[in-house]
Amino acid sequence: MFRTNPTIDFSGPVASWDYWGNDAGGSRYSPLTQITPANVWALKPVWTYHVGMVEGTPQFSSPTLEATPIVAENRLYICSGNGRIASINPETGKEIWAVQPRSDNFSTYLINCRGVTYARDVEVEKGRLCAGKIVAGTLDGRMLAFDSVTGRSCPAFGANGVVDLKRDLGKYERGDISISSPPVVIGTNIVTNNRIADNIRTDMPAGVIRAFDIHTGRPTWSWNALPPGMSDKGDAPKGEAFVRSTPNSWAPMSVDPALNLVYVPMGNAPPDHIAAHRKGLDYYSSAVVALDATTGKVRWHFNTVRKDVWDYDVPSQPVLFDLPTANGTVPALAQATKIGHIFILDRRTGRPLSPVEERRVPASRLPGEKLSPTQPFPANPAFILRDPDLSDSDMWGFTPYDKYRCKQAFRSHDYAGPFTPPSTRGWVQFPSFMGASNWGSVSIDRKRGILIANTNQVPAIMQLIPQADIARRTAAGEKIIPTKGAAYGLSMKPFLSPFGAPCNRPPWGRLTAIDLKAGKVLWNVPLGTTRDQAPFPLWFKIGVPNMGGTMLTASGLIFIGATTDQYFRAYDVRTGKVVWRARLPAGGQATPMTYRLTKNGRQYVVIAAGGHKFMGTGLGDSLIAYALPDGS
Q: Per the residue annotation, which of 176, 308, 311, 414 is the catalytic one?
């Protein structure tokens, strides 16, 4: 059907995209209305910026472009996987400035930078050098500050614009410490977390969270995730500032300036899959923790998993929103998790606003391994975004042959639900280590009170390998993570058929809408097709693995890339129907954003298309902006 270009409505609001998640609470919701379900079909690419390919990465690493840009001072800022930072004209895509900091990316699993942070330094007069700062982390554990106008280093911040987080972490090895998520600003502090590499050794640096003065880069407070009764002063090794091997946080954080709180999604104490070596240091593992932004003291915490040995660390930014209740509006927080549970909490206290129940789970049969006898589950099934527990009948294949092989593999491993204890026999983990949710988190439509979640429904095969067997099995070609100092190493791989497809029945990726006030699922649809992963004509709309997040607009649109089929899509938030899609030049494993900067200007929708080696998508370096046709 022939359609003429739609008329652009210039009467709606203007809005920027100030933070990684658009607002300090990470809602990924924009009030913009120029692009609607009725005219989105006319969206076209209007500019493309090439961030630069990541070159010379180790064979075991994956170069990615997972960044979501921000817009500040009418400039767009983005970072590439290897840390190149660029300032771009947001309406033309022309580069204003770019810097390429040198970074030691040795032993880094993912070559990534998810975004940068803008900070207004009130101690510097407007118009002077570094009155506005662009702050970013590096994969070798440093935090850098650049002038937002020129890209010059900020000389007053740390050592000529550099704060090295490794300096007071005691013993470390190359690749132990990296920053992939943007820091957060609250008051005059900039707060950062950092990833500590998984399953390398039992003795690792502390996963400390730290705040620094925005102007000077001097430390203002630090918080190490120690259980009650322990302190860094009394228990740190001689000559070191922090107790070692504590849980770290690698995912994006959120802040609430009105409550003066920083919300931290926590990972695990090392190693990931054996609790006996942790010496009680997993008190805050897999928790969301609220820290006082002035002192760094814990105000509350909520464990999403107890004594986590499944790598179900909290991978997602806590999303802040206001929840209407019978007793009035409550400041709330939605925490998505790898296990597929969404916990709705009062962000003032950590108290669940949607009931949580403790359910009994299997015990470990490993010598000396004592796990929690119960785990927290949302009582409302609407907040469990994980398919039902697997069974023999769930094994699937394109042919009887691969279905049979998947059934054989399923029967030869342990499986007793999502908390199947790790074993030397091997176990099926569902969801996998990739999680149902990951760093893309969820989005919340503030106007309609709807939560949108994209999830993976893919299992993995895991196995603990006794240390005495690792050398022999590695020599035979197996990929085993040694985990030095632990009784076991680890083998981990997706549970795939001989044809490379997940062994469980599809959909393997879903997009779900939940009415937050009613606590009900509004719709649930498969996300993505098998295109780009299977030859024609085997292009099925069955839902595929995805990595990235969603973005919402007040006009009622959901934008998402993320899928392995290299499409960028828009959905109608009311129905879950696809109303637009466009091919990307590489995988869109990123979260899109949108902005409209002037009343007579267009609304732009922007996504990074850089691909992901471990997702099997094409690699690239494109940042692409879409808009409705000009002059229509």
A: 311
